[in-house]
Amino acid sequence: MSGELNTGDDFEAINDEQYSPPRPRKGELCARRRIEALLEERQLRQALADSWGSDEEE
Asked: What's the pLDDT tens digit per position in 7-55?
């Protein structure tokens, strides 16, 4: 292995004004929304279980 750095122009320089981050693919967005929905459902179930338990204690 060589200790030299690769100084080749593998990437073009981009001005900040022209740069836009890569957009997520449709499948990634669907997966993210599904995970968010599952987490929200879990939080709601936990909140219901917690409030149900506190009603019995009163």
From this structure: 555 666 667 777 777 777 888 889 999 999 999 999 999 999 988 776 6
Instruction: Please give the model's pTM, rounded to 2 decimal places.
Output: 0.49
Q: DSSP states of 25-49 as a string?
A: PHHHHHHHHHHHHHHHHHHHHHHHH
Domain residues for 29? 24-58
CA distance 57 to 54: 5
DSSP-derived 3-state class of residue 21: coil
- What is the Cα–Cα distance from 49 to 55, expressed in whole angstroms? 10
Report how many domains make up the chain. 1
